[in-house]
Automatic annotation (TrEMBL), chain A:
UniProt protein name: RRM domain-containing protein
CC per GO annotation: nucleus; protein-containing complex
RRM domain ranges (all copies): 71-153
Entry keywords, A to Z: RNA-binding
UniProtKB/TrEMBL annotation, chain B:
Biased composition (Polar residues): 590-600
UniProt-listed PANTHER family: PROTEIN ANTI-SILENCING 1 (PTHR47073)
InterPro entries: BAH_dom (IPR001025), BAH_sf (IPR043151)
Location of region: Disordered: 255-654, 670-697
Name the UniProt record assigns to this protein: BAH domain-containing protein
Organism per entry: Lactuca sativa
Biased composition (Basic and acidic residues): 255-271, 282-316, 350-389, 398-573, 616-642
Amino acid sequence: MNDYFDAEQKALRTVSPSLFRRRTLPAARLLSLAIPQWNLHNFLFFYYSQINLMEPSSEEEYETFIEKVERTIYLDNISNQVTEAVLKTALDQFATVKNVQFIPTYFNSCTIYAALVEMETAKQAQEIVKEISDSPFMISGMPRPVRAQKAKIEMFDDRPKMRREKIVCYWMDPSHPNFDVAKKLKNLTKKHAVEASFLMEKQMEEEEKLHNQQEVSLKANFKKYELIDSAQGDGTFRRLGARYGSSYNDF
Amino acid sequence: MEKVDEDANLEFKWLIKKGRGGKNKEVQFYGSFIYDGVEYVLYDCVYMYKEGLREPYIGKLTKIWENADKSKKVKVHWFFRPEEISKWLGDTKTLENEILFASGEGVGLTNISPLEAIAGKCNVVCVSKDSRNPQPSDEELKAADFIFYRTFDVESCTILDNMDEEKIGGIEIKHIFNRREDESISTLPETNTTSTYKKEENHNTITLTTSSEPKQLLLTKTLPNTNNLKDDDAQDKNIPILAAETTSVALLEKTNPKIDEKADKDAMEANKRKKSSTTGSDKLHEQPSKKMKLDDKNPPKEKQVEVVEVDRDSVGLKDVMPSKKSKVDNNVRTGGKNSDIGKTDTSVVKTDKDNLKSSKEKDETKVSKVSKERKKTPMESDKLDDRPLKKMKSKLVANEKQKQVEVEGEKIEKLTDLPSKKSKVEDKSAPNEKQKHVDVVGEKIEKLTDLPSKKSKDEVKSPRNEKPKQVEVEGEKIEKLTDLPSKKSKVEDKSAPNEKQKQVEVEGEKIEKLKSKVEDKSAPNEKQKHVDVVGEKIEKLTDLPSKKSKDEVKSPRNEKQKQVEVVGEKIEKSTGLPSKKSKDEVKSARNVNNLGTSGTQEEKANGNNNNNNKGKISDELEGRRLKKTKAEGSFKIPDNKKNSSIINSNGSNGKNLLVASEGKSKSIVVGTNNNINKENQSESNENKKKLSMSQSPKDMYKEFVVGPKPNADESGWFERLPWEQSLKSAYDQGSAILLHNVDPDYTSGEVEDLVWHAFTENCEAKILPHSVISSPHCYQALVLLKTKEAAQRVLAKLDEDCLMLSNGRPLVGTPCPPIIPRKTCKFFGHLSIDRIKINQREMEEAVSTSHFSQPNTIEYDMAMEWFLMQSKSKKWWEMIYKEKIRVCTAPP
């Protein structure tokens, strides 16, 4: 027995370095996703400081979270009528759905009604994203296809604590030379928020326009087919064929 | 079985055991216990869970016991939520979070429940204006889950606005009001019963004595810094403990006089007072030393004196003489001040201020002063014990200079923290003034003697009257002081000036009294004697340094001894009141205040922290002094301010009262004390660190660490409303705000912590999850504050100032944009034809309605159009964020 345990421990010991390596890589990638606009220096500093400050427990928690992010797909352009059951059924044809989580939207971004669907493996998630991007996939409605992409960390509102030691904040002294800069940044932020919501409105308008346009064309098409259908049904085709001397089967 | 196991898994432990009761003594009562990781103490307020109720009941634990069958029970005295008694409330308005305490007798007052029904601790703060109720601080109020100040009579079903009775529903009123953080002295004056005071005093003394040992250690540690002191300390290693005891006694005595203002007590305590008086004188000496060493030095001096006293009465007398000298010196100063009559008050204040100011800048000078003081103190001690030390003095400085120095030292001692007064003292110490001073001193001595004479001698009867008055004045001051401290930090700051004024007034009164006394006294021969004594003292002073004739000194000693005894008695008496009085009657006002406050602080601290170390006490005293100095307007002393700010911040952090913060400050001081020389630096450093929370303008801009907010665990047990629900209600209320630029890796909890630390507001926060169209560099969080006012305050603050987060971005707050319920918003792109509506049913049944569209359909064409639209959308969002980044990163 003792020998057995020793062997197992040795095996664990030999495995652990590779485990560590494997663990840090996705973290790096995801961090880079989370803060894409940081410059390299900042990012590296941030990254390494994170590594150094990692605590075993929170690190593990974070690791599992990141793995979860890896195998989750983000779906948007879905209807607000879609329920969890509908999503599950829709995606179960690709692979088993583990969990569905809707991203709440509180404000005017209703069109960006979206959901996070957790699959069993990251590979499955990747495949589904590819499938849905290649050909239009409809869920509980037509003709607007859903859009799928890989989920990102910041799409989860229940993400665990980053491995950070302390949050240090301060009120900037008005006499500080950067105070004006900070003020400008604040104004910019507000401006951007307004711009974003304006763009959102614009997008809604565009969508509505497209919607209306499609509705019209759909109606026209529908009318056309109805007409053809009725022509077929009430014997018009036959009569016309007889009149023009052609066989009904040609149509 | 499983349930039982679950219960067993919850941590439970009895802590304080109380008596047994019941028929067969089978019931064991307890005073506190730990349940599920939380410590509950008798008279804590708790949530009581009842199945089926959304909101738990709130009650106060009034009894805790375990039955013979091991079932654990608690008796709970209920609070009523306004909605529970809305039927009887009528038009009565209730405050937000207000609850009412049950009173009267009958159903609904109390219940006996299984202990396991306790769902958690509830922070209930009593805001009653009743004088017996320790007033809560702002922080406490903010942290409070509920407040109450009224009671609801369960018999008559009426609301009572006051709580005048000694007991409500069988509970003593003191258990209903807020807890004194530690049975602080400050609260004592409010209580009428002397017995309780005495008890408290005893308790204090005990704690003090126990604490003395650590001080010794400190002293020994501190000794290296001060050579003279070292020598003295080395000589009197045993002294520290005694000193500590004496100090405690003095404190007790002080508290007594404050409380009772009775001469009887003084008489009763005469013996003790003697010791205390000697200690008081020691204290005077010690104070300078304290100044030097900050905290630790004081006890040793006192100890020395005490030791002397304890060992031999005669020795004590001798010892007293040195102390008297210091006193005399002090008197001389005061006398000088008196001579300046009109100016005395202002001068005192000025000197205090100067001292305060000088404290920082004069750390170096302090050191020198300290050294001087040390010299003095050693000299005194030396005088008492051995004259060689006197030789030292003589060697050290000229007689006059020595006197001046002594006077300065005394003054410094009086000021305790203010070494800067030297210059003034020196000026005052001018020879002519000295004579006057001497006269004044003589008067003072007379007074002093009068005081003692009251006890032992009939000579000075008038002084008694004066003394009681003084005592009263001091008592009032103390009360005021105590009241002030009980208030918030702001109050403290304010209190400083008040104290000053009071002190000044008191001083003025004292001076007048002294003058009158002197005049009165001058009539009898005693004046001459006093004068002689003074002369002797002066001689001693001069002699001491010169050490010319020990005999002369001795001869005066005899006289002096008498006087000293008298003085000692007086001092004792005065110390009994405010031990500091003995030191410097005029200046003593301040000292008294300091002592009184410090005493209260000490008591509080003891109660709270159970840290009865003398060092702490001394630290507290110093801390107070620092505060006072700050308050007094020594704006030049950043350290002091920092300390105060620290204290404030501590208080705010912990929601603790000033007392608690004081305790913290004490501990801080203690820490610094260990590194005597480094005290200033370390204090400043610590202050800086902790300043972040402080409210002073400079401190405001310091970095602060966002840790878990206090009481986070308390709210944890309480199931929060569903987020959507609370968001809706908060939005309707206008208390929801949207934060932009949140650091991407903050969690919702951390945002809550941030809001707490930056604005001291409790809130509920949620990070908004990103969607594809969210700005990749702007993270947002919704914050739901408790009130609309709070939300507006936060918004205004964020708008006005820049709160820089750890990602280097300023936090931006905007009102919450309109919330659109999900179901009501339109979704474009799903077209339906009548015929296809069949699908509706399928969807409701969650049948799969998904499919890939085939390329040969109209649907496919339309889907392609939507694809185009999605690509365009992606593009323009990318564009806009790219532009934003460009703008943000562009050079200004």
